[in-house]
Amino acid sequence: MSKIAVIGTGYVGLTTGACFAHIGHDVVCADIDAGKVERLQRGEIPILEDGLDNLVHEGIQNGRLSFVVGAVNAVQDCEFAYLCVPTPQGADGSADLSYIEDAAREIGPELPSESVVVNKSTVPVGSTRVVERALGRSDVAVVSNPEFLREGSAIHDFLNPDRIVIGAEDQAAAVKVSSLYLGITAPVIVTDPASAETIKYAANAFLATKISFINAVAAVCEAVGADIKDVALGMGYDSRIGHEFLKPGPGWGGSCFVGSETLLVRRDGQIRLVRFDELFAEVDSTGADGWEALSWRPGEPAPEFLPVSRFTARPYEGDVVDVVTKMGRRITTTVDHPFVTSDGLDDATPIRKLGHELTTDDWLPIAQHFPLVIDHPGHGRILDGLAAAGLDPEAVIARLDDLQVELLRQRAEVLPAARRRDALRSRTLRLSEMRLLDIPTLRARFGTTTNGTYVPDVVPFDETFWRMIGLYLAEGHIAEDGARRRICWSFHPTDEAELVEAVRTFWEGCGVKVTVRRLQTATQVSISSRLLAAWLDGVLGVGRSCYDKRIPDQVWSAPDADKKALLRGLWDGDGSWSLIAGGPSVVLEYGTVSRALADGMLRLLGDLGVVARLKVGRTAKSTVDTYWLCISGADQVESALWLLPPSERAEIGRSTGRQAKRIAPTGYRRLTQKHAAWARVASVSRRQYDGTVYSLTVPETHTVVTSFGLVTHQCFPKDTRAMVRIAEDAGYDFGLLKGVVTVNGEQFERVAEKIVELLGGEVEGKRIAAWGLTFKARTDDLRESPSLEILQRLAARGAIIRGYDPSMPSGIDGIEVVDDPYAAVEGAEVLAVLTEWDEFRWLDLDKVADAMAALNVLDARNLLDRAGLLRRGFEYRGIGRS
After folding, report:
1. Which is catalytic among the residues 19, 256, 488, 715?
2. Is the pLDDT reported for residue 717 higher than 50?
3. Is 410 exposed, middle or buried (0-12, 13-18, 19+ CB in 10 A)?
């Protein structure tokens, strides 16, 4: 018998280890969770799986099954190392291989020579190569051996498989792996790794196709008065079709970002802060190649821009979670979106949790100190705003300097004689003429009328420029009067003369006409220029009013001094500081009604090592939220004093210098080993959402830095969507399978609407009983459960839901879970049977009728005795039955 190491004690790993021990092999199972290992050593089984507890106890007692902490401790004398770690995938089918890569890197140096590493996890095509690279061992073979285990019958499926699939380039390694299954009677298929990896996806996708197909046929049966049970029976006797997976039901169970969330991306050297919906619109327009997203790798000192391999968007109707941290950072995702979490301690290993699993004990990372960018623009070109201004080069007039006039004299013969004399006399040309004569624009100044304001083409991106832009973001706006555009800065009528002077001298130094006017409530600095206004708004993207202000993308690649100058300008214009409870503690604050500006400012501060807190609320008489950025804690305040004028820095320094205790902001930690700031989760709330959700894949790290600098993981999918993505990557549009996914999504809504019909169309305040919450019978797995997809739709519409499931799950938002099926139906107006547990067939229907407030049943599994229910006066709805 062989010595086998199993890395990972999840569903697949524990079943694989127990079954191999049962047929006589020596098995060591490894996990990183010491508490879980300790419980397994005592024989405590963490999952519900028929017969698994018996095999684990048997293996422990006969000495063939043991459990250790850490993969290294399992593989040192093994002949085979089975990788059974999670490989979650995004809604686009892109796989998160970080677990499997980490495991391979960890065991690579410790594996005995000539041992075999086996991929048992569900992995995308090409994963064998990924594992080979991570191992770094030419003397160790890598084999694919996909699992085909059905939850609830996994032990039976392992010991009585339909087939055993082995994918290997090394035939000797394939033979070795096949020998592990001696004693198990099943066909052995030996093929190449890519084919073995595809078999798993293709099989699951085909089964999903059968489910969606029979659900679609069920809808037809309801429309024409046929009975889907009889139709499926007649179909199943066709040997080419078979009976399996021809049972109609609620469908099979989706994770992503809502469109308003943001991320930093880079393409062609340009860094931009964009919303997901804006990014995807551009990807649709210009293609998916060449994009990078800011990503974070736990343990690294800074995030980094890494290639994005895939983009996906899909319609979504269901629950989302609004996650808010104690530092105010917030993000909205689908409920099953994975997050990078920690317990906030230095020695903690980051783990992944789904959004709806987050609690106030979890800490989320905030990315700090962005990558150093060497190649940054040193200037801006105002003429780049020509298109944004809607101006034709013919309408733009240039005033030339002496060198340009000399070039005009040398090249003017191409102009008509009258126009040549006029241009030389006035020392002006239209921009179209400059381009015709190939005269550089660098030294000219440009306007749109002969007596308007003229602006240069080139503006230097230096500290004075960025401070001026900061002042615009704080105090500026763009006014429109017909075709006229005026850029305005409004300051205190008497107390901000230094700021007025800073704006005036910058633009006058660029040769631009500036007007300073003393108004009743402000001193206003203004420049009348369509070109400059279009450049500020359309190229720099600073916004026109307080509601749409945002940080210019050009500053992301600027030196730290320029970033500080921008933030200094913002604070000069609209920031403040105050003593807390009279001192000595100090807080710096900045308020804006622009979410985009707050997002950008938080990220910029984080890049400079300052972690600000975000507060969101409404001031008196306001109709929109205000976003308050707060910098507190003596150490942080002192590190951010550059935001304030020198005179104020000294006063604050004297105050914070008196603080004996330097207390960090609540719910915030900067951990020495994680190289990031971590913020504790303050709340996780659930709400209904109907719209498009978005996902992307950063294959190297599987993380993305999202809104307000929060780091999240990437998304989970079904094998069916993975198969669609595999086909697309190969250049094939798998339209049939896309239709399968669509039909399945529609089935959730169809079943929910059947329940609504039984309630007479009114859902608010109505009581619904649910039998069956897990995604299938004989398991405790709630992941992608169709039952929850349906019930959460109803809960979002105000239904009161009480559920029962034999596996006794807990902590399901919006559902009261009880321990008795009859307790679930007490006072209910509809009973929904959503999972096919056999025990539901034999329950006392009289007792059910007595307990319910109204006799309505939605049997989404066609499981109950329909005739018996009808005799007792129930209104019955099945799937595909008239």
Report:
1. 256
2. no
3. exposed
DSSP state of 89: B
510 classed as catalytic: no
Please give the Cα distance from 3 to 544 (Å, whole number).
69
Which residues 6+ apart lie within 8 Å of 299 measured at CB? 673, 674, 675
Six token digits for residue 633: 């804690």
DSSP string across 631-659? E-SHHHHHHTGGGS-HHHHHHHHHHHTT-
Asked if 193 and 174 count as a contact pair (C-beta separation under 8 A), the reply is no
Contact 853, 829 (CB under 8 A): yes
Read off the amino acid at residue 486: R
Determine the average pLDDT of the residues in 102-120: 93
Distance CA(562)–CA(552), nearest Å, equals 12
Look up residue 259 and give its two tokens. Answer: 């469109």
Distance CA 610, CA 639 (A): 7
Answer whether the bond into residue 806 is a cis peptide, omega within 30°: no
Cα(634)–Cα(652) distance, integer angstroms: 10
Residues 515-530 have pLDDT tens digits of 999 998 999 999 999 9
Spatial neighbors of 813 by CB under 8 A, at least 6 apart, are: 319, 335, 356, 686, 792, 795
Beta carbons within 10 angstroms of residue 378's beta carbon:
9
Per-residue DSSP letter, 581: G
Is it the case that residue 419 has pLDDT exceeding 80? yes
Q: Tokens 């559920």 belong to which residue?
A: 803
Q: In whole angstroms, give the CA distance from residue 708 to residue 639.
A: 20
**149-158, 728-737, 741-750: range with highest mean pLDDT:** 149-158
Tell me what pLDDT residue 429 has.
94
Dihedral (C-alpha) 186, 191, 193, 195: value to the nearest 10 degrees? Answer: -90
d(CA 239, CA 663): 73
Residues 6+ apart with CB under 8 A from 871: none
DSSP string of 275-310, one letter each residue: EHHHHHHHHHHH-STT-EEEE--TT-SS-EEEE--E
Q: What is the C-alpha separation between 553 and 570, in angstroms, rounded?
A: 16
- Summarised one tens digit per residue, pLDDT across range 163-178 is 999 999 999 999 999 9
pTM for this entry: 0.59
